[in-house]
Amino acid sequence: MLQPNGEIHVRHKTSVPFCYWNLPYLAERNSLTLFKSTPFKIEDYPGYNNKRGDGSRSDDPFPLGECSTFFFKINYSSQLQNIDYMQMKEELNLRHRALVHVYGR
Predict the structure, then answer these.
(1) Which of 50, 69, 66 is nearest to 58 (CA)?
(2) pLDDT means over runs of 10, the chain (105 residues)
(3) What domain range includes position 61?
(4) Is the residue at 48 inside a domain?
């Protein structure tokens, strides 16, 4: 966040199993508040190329499917704490491993 009233925009799949990541909950646990969510339309982003981002095929694209853009801001009404990025990363990794176990990769 570059400005005190800056925003974080996250594009994420919203179909099963990706909806189980529950981004608004994870953000809320880290003093962020979801203030808007809109369907992601790839045609609004000429030249957009998605990437897997992990593993031996990390540079490969994947089927986009149903996605949304989530808009977050800092929640100043709550007591701000240091964001524990390592804990958040560990929680996401645990969720990912559970989903891979259930649905396969």
Answers:
(1) 50
(2) 80 90 90 92 89 85 90 75 66 74 63
(3) 8-103
(4) yes
